[in-house]
Write a structure and sequence with these properties.
The structure holds two protein chains of two kinds.
Chain A: H1 20-33, E1 41-45, E2 60-63, H2 69-79, E3 84-90, H3 91-97, H4 99-108, E4 112-118, H5 153-159, E5 164-169, H6 173-185, E6 190-195, H7 207-213, E7 214-216, H8 226-233, E8 239-246, H9 252-257, H10 271-279
Parallel strand pairs in A: 1-2, 1-3, 3-4, 4-6, 5-6, 7-8
Antiparallel strand pairs in A: 5-8
Helix pairs in contact in A: 1-6, 3-4, 5-8
Chain B: E1 32-41, H1 45-58, E2 62-68, E3 75-85, E4 96-101, H2 104-110, E5 114-123, E6 134-136, H3 138-145, H4 151-162, H5 167-175, H6 180-198, H7 213-217, E7 220-223, H8 224-234, E8 239-242, H9 249-258, E9 265-268, H10 272-284, E10 289-293, H11 295-311, E11 315-321, H12 338-343, E12 352-354, H13 359-376, E13 379-385, H14 386-390, E14 392-395, E15 440-442, H15 456-475, E16 481-483, E17 488-493, H16 497-507, E18 512-517, E19 519-521, H17 525-528, H18 530-533, E20 536-541, H19 547-554, E21 561-564, H20 573-584
Parallel strand pairs in B: 1-4, 4-5, 5-6, 8-9, 8-10, 10-11, 11-13, 12-13, 17-18, 17-20, 20-21
Antiparallel strand pairs in B: 1-3, 2-3, 7-14, 12-19, 16-18
Helix pairs in contact in B: 1-4, 1-5, 3-6, 4-6, 5-6, 8-9, 8-13, 10-11, 16-20
Classes of the chains: A alpha/beta, B alpha/beta.
Bound molecules: thiamine diphosphate (TPP) and iron/sulfur cluster.
Thiamine diphosphate binds at residues 47-50, 66, 89-93, 117, 119, 121-125, 130 of chain A.
């Protein structure tokens, strides 16, 4: 069925059965239900299967380079704070190639939603390990299985006191939707790490595996408590999903611009002032 | 969202911007003296430079100063060279008339720059076997005043005393730099220096040139970094995202200081990769964004330079060169990154590379960088170098209202297509939130809508669209500045402008004339025709292979001689004069 946010006549490059489809559907539904105007919404992505998401949805988009969506997003939000900005990509894109930007974007705290399709594998380049691949995972490159400790985006984000830290499983659609909505409503940087099965290259972390190995965080969890959030983030049998932590901090745009939210394209410099400042030399 | 308008809307069919008023190039000073001051880093040698340049200008002289320093925060041996003249000077000299050594190391460091006529001044405690020194009692005076850090003020006083200049002028210059607490002791030190300087008047000091109070009063004194910054502001820059790297940091600092006065967003990014991606995000959202960097940082940016080319997102990059490869000589100068600027990035796409040669050109072409990036939707790189960025000189009043600010963004309609084919290859640029259309930008090969495509026909058409933009930009290239006429062209680009001008004036050889390139890429072959008519072409470049000479050769220009230097220094007038003289004396 056609959704108002569908781009018409676009050929989708994802494999049948891929978890990306459900994430795309979820995103469209959330944008519609929150009545976010597509004309004021930009999705910024990098490179990878997940990073193709913006091509299939009727908002503005900037599809840039592998790993670089976050710096683009932060500066875009700064240039026009009235825009809703979403940064989207895969685990390789966001935590591997873009790892440094991940750390520093959290520190900046721009008011953006950061959606990471976490399938624990590189899809587009055909099945190498990603930073979140589990130990022992065998690939054509990691022939004896992955040796490295998997990257834990949630605990890393918490260590940097990110404003909103969450993880969902796309197989648990209703729960994922409620969390994504909260992420959009949060003012400041919001991480949504989404477990998403790659049905072609990851035969270990399947729909079934994610279902059996994840558990919703209980209601009693105090999401304003950083220490207990960190404790939760380190649990892995089962892996908790939900909102780990949420706190309000001033945003990147506010810190640099105060309450001036005018689009930079509408502004020009005061030439008299420039003349005066030059005159002081 | 509120209805917002774009100020100064423009389209590509509007005439290209010409720079304000044709300016007379002023000839360099007829009469000048040079003062070299040497000391360790962290002892205030830069403060001394600021006080003295300001005070000499206030006294009615044209001044120029340039520094040479080691890559360390304290210690080492650094020098500042001042030239004082009766007309503009824009180049350093190697040999100096007066040398002031603030410590013993400075003597050995500057030994080679002294001639039989150089007067060397140093503290009583400093001795040297081969150098004759005129002693000044700096440390004795400072002991009474209670602190070594007044040495600079004392020395400025000595210089003013020697030449019998007005102490009040020196005080004024000093007051602009020190706060209440410090000024008192510094003034006292300066006064003692003046008195001592006056007592030296029987020494055979070189004569100061004539004063031109009225002329210098109306002029401005600044370094190359500030001039570039004023140019970028004139171009409407309202965002700078950069990672510090000498010698580009001067621009970053300048812009940060200006953010107190303008809507100008400054972010120190985590690395250069982020810097340029942020610049692209900024432009995509409608900002006028730039980054500043040096060769090592620019190397990291090449991926995003390529993205700017493919996505047709404008970008302005200020690249202040220093010697490489790798970390090279962090605080020294070279014109060694021209090829990097022209060829960085993968795939074929257009870009413009500008290399201003003096303060006025820093302003003009800093402004033009923004105009061009917006107009052609491609990266524009402005090249500077440590020498140009750090040296201080004088320039005439600039009328900023003459720099027309234009914005090439249009409100979109519902059917807007970001990469629509047009006659000249340029699609009007929309930004998110302005108008009805969706703006779809991408790094992948795409169709007119911005959707990924692997169609060979579409690929071919898009490649041609981007190529057309280059052809169009070439037509707008600024021709090289030709100064004088003759049969032997002395060709330079960027920061060698001043030194070549002065050398040619000094040699006064009617065969020699100067050709100075600021627009260094892409070149318009029509501008090069004249170089086919000259008998001899000599290119002077501050690098080891002659990067620009090779580009001229590719355009079928015969290069007969190259004068190259890659020792970490910019060219010196006296040394270059000798080289050029020896080269042309045999020529017909
Ligand atoms: C600089 C650079 N290096 C490598 C690549 C090749 N590459 C494209 S996608 C990708 C990995 C994507 O993995 P992930 O982000 O997990 O996304 P997925 O395809 O699994 O959704 C790589 C390595 C590239 N495009 N650019
Ligand atoms: S390769 Fe994997 S992640 Fe990519 S579309 Fe196919 S199933 Fe999805």
């Amino acid at each position: 069925m056609k959704h108002p946010l569908d781009r018409t006549d676009i050929d989708n490059a994802w494999c049948p059965g891929c978890g990306n489809f459900a994430i795309l559907k979820l995103l469209k539904e959330v944008l519609t239900e929150l009545e976010l105007d597509p004309k004021n919404t930009v999705i910024v992505s990098g490179i990878g299967q997940a990073a193709k998401t913006p091509y299939y949805i009727g908002t503005h988009m900037f599809c840039g380079l592998h790993g670089r969506a976050l710096p683009v997003s932060a500066a875009l939000k700064l240039s026009n704070p009235a825009l809703t900005v979403i940064a989207e990509g895969g685990d390789g894109d966001m935590y591997g190639e873009g790892g440094n930007h991940f750390l520093h974007t959290i520190r900046r705290n721009p008011d953006i939603v950061h959606i990471v399709h976490n399938n624990m594998v590189y899809g587009l380049t055909k099945g190498q390990a990603s930073p979140t691949s589990q130990k022992g995972f065998k690939t054509p490159v990691q022939v004896k299985g992955v040796n490295n400790e998997p990257f834990n985006p949630v605990s890393v984000a918490l260590a940097l006191k990110a404003g909103f830290v969450s993880r969902v499983n796309i197989g648990n659609y209703t729960h994922a939707k409620s969390v994504l909505k909260e992420a959009f409503l949060h003012k400041g940087y919001a991480l949504v790490d989404v477990f998403q099965p790659c049905v072609v290259f990851n035969k270990v972390n399947t729909y079934k595996w994610f279902k059996e190995n994840t558990a919703e965080i209980e209601d009693s969890h105090d999401s304003s408590n950083l220490l207990s959030a960190m404790q939760k983030a380190l649990e892995n049998a089962p892996v908790p999903i939900g909102i780990f932590y949420q706190t309000m901090q001033s945003t990147f745009e506010e810190n640099l611009r105060g309450d001036d939210t005018r689009a930079l394209y509408s502004l020009s410099h005061d030439i008299d002032k420039l003349q005066l400042l030059f005159g002081a030399y | 969202m509120n209805e917002t308008k774009v100020p100064f809307e423009a389209t590509i069919s509007d005439q290209a911007v010409s720079l304000p008023e044709k300016r007379e190039e002023e000839l360099p000073g007829r009469d000048s003296i040079s003062i070299l001051i040497g000391g360790a880093a962290g002892t205030g040698i830069m403060t001394l430079e600021k006080i003295l340049t300001g005070a000499f200008k206030r006294s009615g002289y044209f001044v120029f100063s340039t520094k040479e320093y080691m890559s360390r925060v304290r210690g080492g041996s650094n020098t500042t060279l001042l030239r004082i003249a009766d007309a503009p000077v824009n180049a350093p000299c190697w040999y100096t008339d007066i040398f002031i050594a603030l410590d013993t190391d400075a003597l050995s460091h500057a030994h080679e720059r002294l001639t039989d006529h150089t007067i060397v001044l140093a503290d009583e405690n400093i001795t040297h076997e081969e150098i004759e020194i005129t002693k000044i009692p700096v440390s004795r005076a400072l002991k009474e005043l209670g602190g070594r850090h007044y040495a600079n003020s004392y020395v400025t006083g000595v210089i003013f005393g020697i030449f019998g200049l007005d102490e009040a002028v020196l005080t004024e210059s000093m007051e602009a730099l020190f706060d209440e607490e410090e000024i008192h002791k510094n003034k006292a030190a300066m006064h003692q220096g003046v008195v001592y300087g006056q007592s030296l008047k029987d020494l055979p000091f070189p004569k100061l040139p004539g004063q031109l109070q009225q002329k210098t009063n109306s002029m401005h004194l600044m370094d190359g970094s500030s001039a570039s910054g004023f140019g970028f502001l004139a171009g409407g820059c309202n965002m700078i995202t950069a990672y510090p790297m000498s010698p580009s940091t001067g621009v970053l600092n300048f812009m940060a200081s200006m953010s107190e006065h303008f809507t100008l967003l400054v972010e120190q990014s985590e690395d250069e990769i982020a810097s340029l991606n942020m610049v692209l995000g900024g432009w995509f959202g409608g900002a006028r964004a730039m980054t500043s960097t040096s060769g090592g940082g620019f190397a990291l940016m090449s991926e995003a330079v390529s993205l700017s080319g493919m996505s047709e997102t404008p970008a302005v990059i200020y690249l202040a060169q220093r010697p490489g490869p790798a970390t090279g000589l962090p605080t020294r100068s070279e014109q060694g990154d021209l090829n990097l600027a022209i060829y960085s990035g993968h795939g074929y796409f257009g870009r413009i590379v500008l290399a201003p040669g003096d303060l006025q050109e820093c302003i003009d072409f800093g402004y033009l960088a923004f105009e061009l990036a917006d107009r052609y939707q491609m990266p524009v790189i402005t090249l500077s170098d440590q020498y140009l960025a750090d040296s201080i000189g004088m320039l005439k009043r600039v009328d900023f209202s003459a720099y027309v600010q234009r914005r090439y963004i249009l409100p979109t309609d519902a059917l807007y297509e970001r990469y629509k084919f047009t006659e000249n290859g340029i699609t009007p640029r929309g930004v998110p939130g302005l108008g009805e259309g969706l703006v779809v930008s991408t790094s992948d090969e795409h169709d007119e809508r911005g959707q990924i495509t692997e169609s060979s026909h579409m690929r071919d058409k898009m490649v041609k669209k981007r190529k057309k933009k280059i052809s169009l930009a070439i037509l707008e290239a600024h021709s090289p500045k030709v100064m004088g006429e003759g049969s032997i062209a002395v060709i330079g680009w960027g920061s060698t402008k001043g030194v070549i001008t002065e050398v040619l004036r000094e040699l006064a050889d009617p065969r020699l004339f100067q050709v100075h390139f600021v627009w260094v890429h892409p070149l318009d072959p029509r501008h090069l025709e004249m170089l086919k008519e000259t008998k001899t072409n000599i290119v002077i470049e501050n690098n080891v292979t002659g990067e620009f000479s090779d580009i001229l050769k590719k355009h079928d220009i015969d290069i007969h001689h190259r004068i190259l230097q890659a020792d970490g220094f910019a060219f010196f007038t006296d040394l270059l004069k000798e080289k050029l003289y020896n080269l042309v004396k045999e020529q017909k």
